[in-house]
Design brief:
CATH architecture of the largest domain: 6 Propeller
Strand order of the largest sheet: 3-4-5-6
CATH class of the largest domain: Mainly Beta
Distance between the termini: 50 Å
CATH topology of the largest domain: Neuraminidase
Helix content: under 10%
CATH superfamily of the largest domain: Kelch-type beta propeller
Structural class: mainly beta
Order of helices and strands: EEEEEEHEEEEEEEEEEEEEEEEEEEE
Oligomer: single chain
Largest sheet: 4 strands, mixed
Length: about 375
């Protein structure tokens, strides 16, 4: 604390002031220095596992969940993750939806990667739609083919409830791809407007309120049956696809939703594959049709660099299987076609390691989609 200047007054007696802790050393004039190191109060930041969370948490209690490798907060009802990462890299649960044979079926995926039984009657039945996370904890399904290409979307709440059809959201098409970007928004890209004939390179941005924007054209090679995922906490990547022949190109998307030019030569050319974020900031492409069905995957770094092929990860399949992030930092591949419709899934660790097949998880189908949702376990 600063010492005030004393002005002498006649017939006044002065005494040396007593200064309590922190202790000062030196004379009563001049510079004073601390004799010891001051200590300051700190707020404790508790850690726990999912199994050992506080049994009776207080509102807005915060801690670090070592099981999830993430900070979480109690909102009075649920434990919620710190919503600072990308939608697809921060979500606890996932949802598979739609597909052939023209079904409106969805299947919820728990934070542990367990797929639930079929839920039917969720919007217009179609195949070849897109799915992506948006708004940090919700999801959107969109586009696809009924008896014609459609541009409708269906919003999914943070509890996994699929909303009614919303029409008129950009050019009708199917077998496009979509991913989260910019931490809370999504982008839809590419696809076919006429069955295997007319491919487009257009994209549509989705706000953090789930509103789909108008068409943006001229963003890389027009194609269909590609895949997309978020990476690097706030960016996205489109990859692979079909233009009459299989492609191995990718296109990076900035955190402003701007699509970059084609990058070629990134793994085996194929179509009908799937992609998802994993490990909070990386992505994985997997499976597909390379002339025959394959089970290979390609990991994407948090800089958007696609790695070489990794083979032998579950049953080879393609024709539009789906993938999504779950459990904050893991991913799941599901369904697809390998000569017949499949209902199997494969879990991906937060290190990008694909697990063995898990069978019997809902109705087998292909040309479906998936997305992550919910910050609650």
């Amino acid at each position: 604390m600063p010492l005030q200047e004393f002005i002498p007054v006649a017939n006044t007696t002065f005494t040396t002031p007593t200064i309590s802790s922190p202790v000062l050393s030196g004379t009563t004039t001049g510079t004073y220095t601390l004799a010891g190191t001051p200590t300051f109060s700190t707020l404790p930041f508790t850690s726990w596992t999912t199994a050992t969370r506080p049994a009776s948490p207080t509102n807005y209690q915060v801690g670090f969940n070592t099981s999830l490798n993430a900070k979480e907060i109690w909102d009075g009802t649920y434990w919620r993750l710190d919503p600072t990462g990308p939608g697809q890299g921060n979500t606890q649960r996932a949802i598979f939806g739609f597909g052939l044979d023209i079904t409106a079926t969805t299947n919820l995926v728990s934070a542990a990667g367990v797929v639930a039984a079929d839920t039917t009657g969720v919007g217009t039945a179609r195949y070849g739609p897109i799915g992506a996370s948006y708004g940090t904890d919700k999801a959107i399904f969109g586009y696809g083919f009924t008896s014609i290409n459609v541009s409708m979307t269906n919003l999914v709440t943070n509890t996994g409830v699929v909303g009614s059809d919303v029409t008129g959201v950009g050019t009708a098409r199917y077998t496009a791809a979509a991913a989260g970007y910019g931490t809370d928004k999504a982008i839809v890209g590419y696809g076919s407007t006429i069955n295997h004939i007319t491919f487009v390179a257009m994209t549509n941005l989705v706000t953090n309120q789930g509103v789909v924007g108008s068409d943006v054209t001229g963003v890389g090679t027009a194609r269909q049956y590609l895949a997309a995922a978020g990476y690097g906490t706030d960016k996205a990547i489109f990859g692979y696809g079909f233009t009459g022949s299989n492609l191995s190109m990718t296109n990076l998307v900035t955190n402003q939703g701007v699509v970059g030019s084609d990058v070629t030569g990134v793994g085996t050319a194929r179509n009908g594959l799937a992609a998802a974020g994993y490990g909070t900031d990386k992505a994985i492409f997997g499976y597909g049709n390379a002339g025959s069905y394959v089970s290979l995957t390609n990991l994407v770094t948090n800089q958007g660099v696609v790695g070489s092929d990794v083979t032998g990860v579950g049953t080879a399949r393609g024709a539009g299987l789906a993938a999504a992030g779950y459990g904050t930092d893991k991913a799941i591949f599901g369904y697809g076609h390998s000569g017949s419709n499949q209902s199997l899934t494969n879990l991906v660790t937060n290190q990008g390691v694909v697990g063995s097949d898990v069978t019997g998880v809902g109705t087998g189908r292909h040309v479906l989609t998936a997305a992550g949702f919910s910050l609650t376990a």
